[in-house]
Structures are given as structure tokens and as C-alpha cells.
Description:
Number of domains: 1
Number of helices: 2
Shape: globular
Mean pLDDT: 95
Order of helices and strands: EHEEEEHEEE
Strand order of the largest sheet: 1-4-3-2
CATH class: Alpha Beta
CATH architecture: Roll
Structural class: alpha/beta
Amino acid sequence: xxxxxxxxxxxxxxxxxxxxxxxxxxxAKKSRTTExxxxxxxxxxxxxxxxxxxxxxxxxxxxxxxxxxxxxSSNEKVKAAYDKALELGGCCEGEPGExxxxxxxxxFRDLNGNKLGLFFKN
Length: 122
């Protein structure tokens, strides 16, 4: 149902350096780069992930209460991607751990304040 997720950024180069290593841990590959956006693919017929300069050229904002959740293939990859996000300047919104029985998750904000959750369901 969801074809892609696009998060706003005010600096494509900085966003690329932030997301490249995180999305690599999660199995995505960069599939397209333009002067306004960078797109990563998790595979054919999978939801795409992108960062983009706002179309209206207004300042980037992040929504309070808005979060993008990404499915991850193991507890270890949740922790590795979360750790990489913090290492690259992201901030903690919830350390890795079991949230409800059978669900391991972690939460962080990127360099523009966008919130992401990483989830592995055992």
C-alpha cells in the first residue's frame, strides 16, 4: 500500500552521509540521486525511502507525534542501525529493547528532527 517514504532535509549531502550507513545496515541500496532528492531501495515491490529538499522551498520541519517505522530483520540490526544513527549525530528517542513481548525496537531522530523507529518482531 505504501510506495515510498520521503523525509525533508535542508542539506542533501549531510542527509546522505547520515542515512547511507544506516540504510546499508538495513539492506537498502541507493537507487537514485537528483539535485533535490536521494532515494534508497529495499528491493523491487518494497517501500522506498528518500530524503528531499522541500518542494515549496520553505524551511524543513518535523512533526511532533509523527514517526516513520522501519521493519528490521534482527535485534542486532536494530541496535546496529540505532548506534550508527547516534554516532552520526542523531539523537535518542528510545534505546534498543523489548517494547512489548516479541517486539524489539529503538527510536531516534535524524539531523533534521525526523523521528524513526526500528522494529524487529520475533
